[in-house]
Design goal:
The complex is a heterodimer of chains A (290) and B (189). With 290 residues, chain A is of the alpha/beta class. Helices cover 24% and strands 17% of the residues of chain A. In chain A, helix 1 (12-27) packs across helix 2 (48-57). In chain A, 49% of the residues are buried. By secondary structure, chain B is an alpha/beta fold. Chain B has one domain (4-182): 3-Layer(aba) Sandwich (Rossmann fold). Helix content of chain B is 26%, strand content 19%. Chain B is built from five helices and nine strands, in the order αβαβαβαβββαβββ. Chain B is globular. The chains are: A alpha/beta (290), B alpha/beta (189). The A-B interface holds A 6-8, 12-13, 15-17, 19-29, 31, 33-34, 56-60, 115, 140-141, 143-145, 176, 178-179, 197, 199, 212-218 and B 13-15, 17-19, 21-22, 24-26, 28-30, 56-59, 61-62, 114-119, 121, 123, 140-144, 164-165, 169, 182-184.
């Protein structure tokens, strides 16, 4: 740990401001609390909101995991992990079960989270109504009046045009029967997992909003009686670990169009392969592999 | 200023406040859960948990209302020195209020937020004799099935919950123990 930084990088006044916003966010599930987002040593869009929320939550004996689209080993995830290793001196891990705080970009881990874990989402556009109504003054009023008709019109237009609800990520949810919330650009496959035992916190740095979903809170994906929400998901098994019910990434293998599908959650896939599950294109893990 | 006021703050503010906040966040996210919180040592008769919570969350941006029993010169000086929080007489201006339940009544004086900004509401820190998981039955966000918490009364909290998404959020403090009741929690019994 580099002692030239304050613990977890941010100054104390900033952390207090974020902490107060977090508590109000937890008390009003799904409501976007404005906060005075700071410039972070990384560009907007790289998780400045999530990083600020994590910084305000971390304690010295936390174990941090950072994932980007499910993977622990992408530039974004590695950088943020190193950032907190350096500024907060916390332990880091790639194993979902080991982590106490998990910062994520666009995925929820496949493994069920526990009461002792916090999931921090990086959010680009926190306002679910923003692409339907650009004015903040208006969307704020719409939330106040619980006026979400426009969102249903959007989903209806999807059905009129495509025959089904074509929104496949950042699929809007209603929290505890009150606020419509953007779950961040997670695939809609992950939406049903949001009713979980862990606390979920959302940070949008550029848009300066924080919101939260407490454990065991009702999270309903918006739909229609005759067009119920469908989780979607893989039509096949993971090529490496043979998982049947995981969210898969498509990987192009060569110029001839060969493709393979692999788990987007790298830790989940590794764990399964170590347990002896082998997919069609996988091979057993050995000591000198890697 | 009495030198007494200079002591009793966090010994390592960044880490102590981080640990204290995690407890405050955890109990707010799980209404009814009782946890230990410490780090601050406020002058008597303020509890360790209430004092630690104020040190963790208050600064010059947060007007604090102190109940008569906590309005002693020592507590005021301690709070001003360690947090810089302005102490206000008007209950409607307070972002945080601390005191015994009887002193906080009527709680309808405190800010409950506006329909556009329900977060602009007060957090009440209620000093209680003891905290125990018995009494009112709670359910709502953060609670798996139900949980139980002894409350000073039920009606005021039930009324508060009906204001959702507006309303007040409560911490209950006793010694170094703390529990919370956000506006989302519904009460039975």
């Amino acid at each position: 740990m580099n002692t030239e930084y304050n613990f977890a990088y941010l100054d104390e006044q900033t952390k207090r401001m974020i902490r107060r916003a977090l508590l109000k966010g937890v008390a009003i599930p799904g409501y976007q609390v404005p906060f005075a987002s700071r410039e972070m040593p990384m560009p907007y869009g790289w998780g400045t909101g999530g990083v600020q929320v994590s910084a305000a939550c971390l304690v010295p004996d936390d174990t941090l995991k950072v994932i980007d689209q499910g993977a622990d080993d992408t530039t974004n995830a590695v950088s943020i992990r190193k950032f907190f290793e350096k500024t907060a001196g916390v332990e880091v891990t790639e194993e979902t079960a080991e982590a106490t705080v998990i910062q994520t970009r666009h995925r929820i881990p496949e493994r069920d989270l526990t009461e002792n874990q916090i999931l921090v989402y990086q959010v680009p556009i926190p306002e679910p109504l923003r692409f339907l109504e650009p004015r903040e003054t208006e969307t704020r009023k719409m939330h106040a009046l619980e006026e979400y008709g426009l969102m249903h019109v959007k989903l209806y237009e999807d059905i009129a045009r495509h025959g089904h609800i074509a929104t496949s990520y950042a699929y809007p949810v209603k929290i505890e029967g009150r606020y419509v919330m953007d779950p961040s650009p997670i695939p809609k496959f992950d939406n049903p997992k949001m009713e979980m035992a862990a606390l979920q916190l959302f940070g949008a740095g550029r848009e300066q909003r924080i919101y939260a979903v407490p454990p065991y809170t009702k999270v309903v994906s918006l739909d229609f009686e005759d067009h119920p929400f469908e989780r979607g998901g893989a039509q096949q098994a993971c090529g490496l670990c043979d998982a049947q019910d995981a969210y898969l990434d498509e990987v192009i293998m060569d110029d001839a169009g060969t493709r393979m599908f692999v788990c987007s959650d790298t830790d989940f896939c590794r764990e399964r392969r170590e347990a002896g599950h082998i997919g069609e294109m996988g091979m057993p893990i050995t000591e000198d592999a890697a | 200023m009495q030198s007494q006021s200079l002591i009793g703050g966090f010994s390592d503010a960044p880490k102590d406040s981080a640990i204290a906040f995690r407890v405050a966040l955890d109990v707010m996210a799980r209404p009814g859960k009782i946890a230990k919180i410490s780090g601050g040592t406020p002058p008597e008769p303020m509890s360790t948990s209430a004092g630690t919570l104020l040190l963790t969350l208050c600064d010059p941006e947060t007007p604090v209302w102190l109940a008569p029993s906590l309005r002693g010169a020592q507590i005021k000086e301690w709070l001003r020195f360690h947090t810089g929080a302005p102490l206000v007489d008007s209950r409607s201006e307070a972002m945080f209020a601390v005191g015994r339940w009887s002193e906080l009544l009527p709680v309808t004086d405190f800010a409950i937020g506006t329909p556009e900004y329900p977060d602009r509401s007060a957090t009440l820190i209620v000093e209680v004799e003891a905290l125990e998981n018995a009494g009112a039955i709670l359910h709502g966000p953060g609670i798996k099935d139900t949980s139980e918490l002894a409350l000073p009364e039920v009606k005021a909290f039930r009324n508060n919950a009906t204001l959702f998404p507006l309303g007040l959020d409560f911490y209950f403090t006793s010694g170094s123990r703390i529990a919370a009741l956000p506006r989302t929690t519904k009460l039975e019994g």
